[in-house]
Amino acid sequence: MPLYSYSCKTCGSKQEAYSSIDERRNGPKCHGDMQIVIGCNILPDIEPFVAPGTDEFISSRSKRRAFMQKHGLIEVGNEGNPHDR
Ligand SMILES: [Zn+2]
């Protein structure tokens, strides 16, 4: 059975429960029915860090991408013609 994350529509408290497709509507209850949270498998954002040699604080993938483009850096594993992107 897949594990679903539920969120209370009223107070936002979270809970996880294994449910079959048919049982999803009978999930855990808090202030009434809880809502299934979609997208819990999305990659978390990167750990924030200060870019070496600069004082720039990189706190997200988009900032890291912008920083690398600005400095002409290429991410290992993501090499290729920059004009293709
Ligand atoms: Zn609640």
Layout: helices, strands, pairs:
Layout: E1 3-8, E2 14-18, E3 29-30, E4 32-36, E5 49-50, E6 57-58, H1 61-70
Antiparallel strand pairs: 1-2, 1-4, 3-4, 5-6
What would you report as the Rg, rounded to the nearest angstrom? 20 Å
Count of separate structural domains: 2
pLDDT average, as an integer?
A: 77
Share of helix, binned: 10-25%
Taking strands numbered 1, 2, ... along the chain, how are they ordered across the largest sheet?
2-1-4-3
Oligomeric status: single chain
Query: How many strands appear in the DSSP assignment?
Result: 6
Number of helices: 1
Proportion of beta-strand residues = 25-35%
Bound molecules: zinc ion
Walkthrough of the structure:
With 85 residues, the protein is of the alpha+beta class. The protein has two domains: 3-37, no CATH class; 43-77, no CATH class. Helices cover 12% and strands 26% of the residues. It is built from one helix and six strands. A hairpin with a 6-residue loop joins β5 and β6 (57-58). The chain is elongated and about 55 Å long. The relative contact order is 0.13. Zinc ion (ZN) is lined by residues 8, 10-11, 13, 30-31. Zinc ion is lined by residues 8, 10-11, 13, 30-31.
Summary keywords:
alpha+beta; 1 helix; binds zinc ion; two-stranded antiparallel sheet; four-stranded antiparallel β-sheet; 85 residues
Summarize the structure.
With 85 residues, the chain is an alpha+beta fold. The chain has one helix at 61-70; strands at 3-8, 14-18, 29-30, 32-36, 49-50, 57-58.
